[in-house]
């Protein structure tokens, strides 16, 4: 099993590397064919204050006076050693610009992910064990409600209520813990809808299985049944959904940062689009692709560890009779 898993993990890692390289190449090609000349529009713009020597150095660095395929090869070579290029707007290394704002975005995205998982777990648990007269049916409508409300609307409501009216946090102090928490709530609520929907559907499915009925007949309590037998198989599809929602977290983080006035990747992208700073845009798009691929790679590697029925050779999972292993 260990050797088989090691081969499986190696294949997935190699596939992830190929996907990242293809994403970088695709981004470079798309940006290269966009209308407009970055040399004319940015470097030679008098407002930017570049001297002729600085322009010549940047042109030579990117090979802007060479064919596109030569530029691609040089850019890919730099990317492989971690060199993301130089900003056409400020002349600073792109890695430095991203490094200054990335921690704020990562804190927001990770906090929003934690909020979404807590909301999804609470909703899923409530739909199984909350009595109907106390709103079990209402809880099942929450995912649709959360998904239908954009995160910027939630953010504006939270700012109006908890900042302007209650004064719990200040918008001008956007990096404060409470401000970060409310920004994470605004971003995490829509994301939690997809996770909760999948979790509820799988909990309903597992609760109807024969092994669950056998466990109940043996006197196993609802809490132990949920924790020992229902939660794990129901959470397996959630792992996949969480990995797929990373893109939504990153995209939503850009909007949420603007609403809450946070300095992050969103503000960097906004400035880069305005000034046509193509190296920064390419680096940000590639970074998003890297994060998405890495998170999905982790999900692929974790899934066989959570479910031993998954065959690492790529065939369909082997079904087992769970009634034989249920014990109170």
TrEMBL record:
SUPFAM superfamilies: MetI-like. It is a multi-pass membrane protein. Its main location: membrane. Residues 102-303 form the ABC transmembrane type-1 domain. Keywords: Cell membrane, Membrane, Transmembrane, Transmembrane helix, Transport. The chain crosses the membrane at residues 12-34, 101-125, 145-166, 178-200, 236-260, 280-303. It is found in: Cell membrane. Belongs to the binding-protein-dependent transport system permease family. This is ABC transporter permease. It comes from Saccharopolyspora taberi.
């Amino acid at each position: 099993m260990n050797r088989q898993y090691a081969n499986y993990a190696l294949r997935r890692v190699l596939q992830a590397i190929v996907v990242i390289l293809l994403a970088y190449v695709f981004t470079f090609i798309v940006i290269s064919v966009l209308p407009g000349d970055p040399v004319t529009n940015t470097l030679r713009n008098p407002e930017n204050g570049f001297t002729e020597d600085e322009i010549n150095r940047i042109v030579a660095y990117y090979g802007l006076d060479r064919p596109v395929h030569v530029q691609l090869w040089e850019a890919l070579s730099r990317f492989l050693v971690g060199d993301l290029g130089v900003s056409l707007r400020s002349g600073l290394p792109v890695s430095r610009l991203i490094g200054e704002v990335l921690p704020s975005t990562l804190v927001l995205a990770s906090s929003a992910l934690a909020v979404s998982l807590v909301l999804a777990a609470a909703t899923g648990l409530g739909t199984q064990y909350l009595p109907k007269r106390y709103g079990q049916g209402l809880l099942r409508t929450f995912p649709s409600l959360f998904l239908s409300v954009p995160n910027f609307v939630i953010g504006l409501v939270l700012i109006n209520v908890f900042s302007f009216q209650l004064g719990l946090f200040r918008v001008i102090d956007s990096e404060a813990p409470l401000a970060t928490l409310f920004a994470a709530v605004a971003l995490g609520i829509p994301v939690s809808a997809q996770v909760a929907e999948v979790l509820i559907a799988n909990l309903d499915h597992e609760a109807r299985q024969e092994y669950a009925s056998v466990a109940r007949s043996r006197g196993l309590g609802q809490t132990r049944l949920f924790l020992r037998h229902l939660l794990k198989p129901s959470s397996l599809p959630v792992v996949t959904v969480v990995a797929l929602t990373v893109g939504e977290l990153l995209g939503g983080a850009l909007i949420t940062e603007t609403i809450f006035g946070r300095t992050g990747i969103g503000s960097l992208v906004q400035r880069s689009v305005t000034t046509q700073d193509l190296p920064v845009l390419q680096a940000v798009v590639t970074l998003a692709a890297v994060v998405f691929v890495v998170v999905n790679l982790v999900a692929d590697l974790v899934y066989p560890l959570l479910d031993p029925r998954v065959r690492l050779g790529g065939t369909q999972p082997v079904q087992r009779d769970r009634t034989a292993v249920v014990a109170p």
